[in-house]
Amino acid sequence: MRHLPNILSGIRLILVGVFVVLFRAGRYLPALSVFVFAFFTDVLDGQLARANGWVTNLGKLLDPLADKLMTLAALVCIYWGKQKTLYLVLFLLMALKELLMVIGGLFMAKRSVVAMADWPGKIATGLFAVGVMLSLLSFLSLPVEPWNLVILAVATAMSYFALVFYAATQLPKALGKRNDAAGGA
Description:
Structural class: mainly alpha
Mean pLDDT: 89
Largest sheet: none
Low-confidence stretches: none
CATH architecture: Up-down Bundle
CATH class: Mainly Alpha
Number of domains: 1
Number of strands: 0
Shape: globular
């Protein structure tokens, strides 16, 4: 049972491909269903891991990877479907932020520091989920624009705030580890 959160994250990684295939085939309701299911497995795996003490370094990496890949895949698909520049801009901003997070994560991993999700990242993830769900509903002819775009823009801003927050709170730990290692040599 202790591996269940990581298994759920692995399933979410597989669901990214399922989502893209369904969306590209014009099966918007099943694609939305996959996205919603993936979001709820994200919530469930986090709850299980924290409540039962099953938090692992692998889970700290796998969980956000699955979240970010699903969000980025959804934003690309929505752009493909809408062909509106704003969706492309949101995707590019998100992709840039994720690239910066990966670089920071690799820097920290080299110093044996693995960051855990904190409130700004969780809020950004939740806002992205709502914004993407609303955007997907627009493919079912529901009048959700411009609210979906407003939520996606707020989610993007919050994700950049999270980037700064993590840099301010997590990078000092990694730099401290390096100084500790240099001092002990």
